[in-house]
Design brief:
The chain is α+β, with helices and mostly antiparallel strands and about 300 residues long. The protein has helices spanning about 10-15, 45-50, 65-70, 85-90, 115-120, 155-175, 210-220, 285-290, and strands spanning about 25, 30-35, 40, 55, 75-80, 95-100, 125-130, 140-150, 225-230, 235-245, 255-260, 260-265, 270-280, 285. The strands form 4 sheets. Strands 9, 10, 11, 12, 13 and 14 form a 6-stranded antiparallel sheet that branches.
């Protein structure tokens, strides 16, 4: 059971290992995507069809209950399916349901753990293999694998590394089911933190933050859904930049310098240099290219979320 691209390598691992007989894949329904809002199949669903595996895409799991029960599954493996599983489904598999969650639980239960790890400046992220309970991401943890975050890590690069790690976790799950075994431990709920779904307001850059925090905010949203800031009536999308420690006296959000090297914006402490940006209706471009046909806007101010 899974939906986005991050879960595809885990599915591939299940399909490639002789220990597993994948009888069905459950994914979210096709949704409109892109500028044309064309109905698009989720990556996991597409991978299942390519592999010739039976695919279920119920709008609600209750709509597929009889079909799922008829499969009499020994095992259910979940990664980023996108919905909390009901008790009747959790109780179906004789060997129990397992979930691959992209954080070092109990940190960052919820929909956006990778974004949260980068935004909070964590040194480590990873995957936890856990048993499943009706409460979101609260089941016992069997094992965890860590990934060290680079200083320039984006949610895109961390996503890809985590996806590949998911396949490794599947190999270890196979070993456990063959009797190699390992213990588990319950999560300490008092240490649980949460990473809810990214909303539109979360994409707005908060220039009152320290420049290093602004950098983390941008990287936690790159390449999608993308960090942005409003300049006049335009929403400018920020694809790449870097923090600079130079002290500034201008109000946060004020453009204080511009050159081929980048556009410097005052932060609560320090400045953030925008290197690649995107204007509405245009493609992303380096600042040097942008400045050839546009006013640098020195002295203008990006809005803050509270403005």
């Amino acid at each position: 059971m899974g939906t986005p691209q991050i879960a595809v390598p885990a599915l591939s691992g299940l399909l490639d290992l002789p220990e597993f007989d994948v009888t069905a894949v459950v994914s979210q329904p096709d949704r409109p995507a892109g500028r044309g809002r064309k109905m698009t199949k989720p990556p996991v669903a597409g991978a299942a069809l390519d592999a010739g595996v039976r695919l279920l895409q119920p709008e609600a799991l209750k709509d597929a209950r009889s079909e799922l029960e008829s499969l009499v599954p020994q095992l259910i493996v979940v990664m980023a399916y996108g919905r909390i599983l009901p008790r009747w489904l959790l109780s179906l598999p004789a060997l129990g349901p397992y979930n691959l969650h992209a954080s070092l639980l109990p940190a960052y239960r919820g929909a956006a753990p990778l974004n949260a790890a980068i935004r909070n400046g964590d040194q480590w992220s990873g995957i936890s293999l856990m048993g499943m309970e009706p409460e979101m991401d609260a089941g016992p943890v069997f094992f965890q694998h860590k990934l060290e975050l680079a200083n320039d890590e984006t949610v895109g690069t961390l996503h890809d590394r985590t996806a590949l790690l998911g396949r490794r976790v599947i190999v270890e799950l196979a070993a456990r089911l063959q009797g190699v075994g390992w213990g588990y431990h319950p999560q300490d709920d008092s240490k649980a933190t949460f990473a809810p779904k990214i909303e539109a307001m979360d994409r707005a850059v908060d220039w009152t933050l320290d420049a290093r925090e602004v950098d983390r905010q941008v990287r936690s949203l790159t390449p999608v859904p993308g960090a942005r800031s409003r300049l006049g009536s335009d929403w400018i999308r920020i694809h790449q930049g870097r923090p600079l420690p130079d002290p500034v006296t201008a109000d946060p959000g004020t453009i204080i310098a511009a050159s081929a090297d980048g556009i410097d914006v005052a932060c609560g402490d320090g400045r953030y240099r925008i290197v690649v940006l995107q204007m509405p209706g245009r493609k992303a471009q380096p600042v040097a290219e942008f400045l050839r046909g546009a006013d640098a806007g020195i002295g203008r101010r990006f809005d803050r979320p509270s403005d």
